[in-house]
TrEMBL record:
One of its GO terms (biological process) is mitochondrion organization. Keywords: Autophagy, Mitochondrion, Transit peptide. Belongs to the NipSnap family. This is Nipsnap homolog 2. GO terms for cellular component: mitochondrial matrix; mitochondrial outer membrane. Residues 187-284 form the NIPSNAP domain. Pfam families: NIPSNAP. The lineage of its organism: Eukaryota, Metazoa, Chordata, Craniata, Vertebrata. Its main location: mitochondrion. GO terms for molecular function: protein-macromolecule adaptor activity. The gene is NIPSNAP2. It is found in: Mitochondrion matrix. InterPro entries: Dimeric_a/b-barrel, NIPSNAP, NipSnap_domain.
Amino acid sequence: MKTGYYVTLPEDAELFIPLIRLRFLNLLFRRSLTSSSNRRREDSWLKSLFVRKVDPRKDAHSNLLAKKETSSLYKLQFHNVKPECLEAYNKICQEVLPKIHEDKSYPCALVGTWNTWYGEQDQAVHLWRYEGGYPALTEVMNKLRENQEFVEFRKARNNMLLSRRNQLLLEFSFWNEPVPRSGPNIYELRSYQLRPGTMIEWGNYWARAIRFRQDGSEAVGGFFSQIGQLYMVHHLWAYKDLQSREDIRNAAWHKHGWEELVYYTVPLIQEMESRIMIPLKTSPLQ
């Protein structure tokens, strides 16, 4: 007597059997072509998508990744401007912001100021550096409250905005220091939202990856967030034009090792965004 388990299939089930058999054979064929080393690499990549072990740390990642020789703090501002007000907004920014940048009594410097060209439209982006970290930030904020010209500037500016947000950032130790440069250039701000617990891993990979992108001095600065949206990374690049950007990025793929670093950093990312930005006339980064 035969025993076993039986299931009742729908009447049209036989239509799907050849397709299932074909897919199964195709899977076996593809796996047979994969070497053992590639299988281990694939398994590791897949595992990284679903399993994220956060190693125990004895120090904050900011202390492990940031520059030790400096204590600079950066502030990145995003202002979404009413479309009809963008020209007036740029005008008052170019009148007031350089005065703060040039005043030696303020321990801060305007690193760059831009309008987004491709990406979110009618947007202004400002990057400030505070020499001396959080105490310098507090000192600047207190002084600006007493600066009547700046108070009036903020009132006028705020009437032109739809929304605004900012982040406080530290600088990766292995990136270039962002210094003034002559133009004309376009700038790309690539922003990455990382999976929580992966900042150290990101830093370890990019400490090696950055050497593939420094031949043409396009690397301007690399930062990670401390306050605001957390586990955010920002890479700032400068190019002569969009075609130069395309050529430089394509050339990186011909350098041995670049593709592997990209391969292992992709699973660390939750979201990413690219902005192409044009500097204002008064921006130190031209």
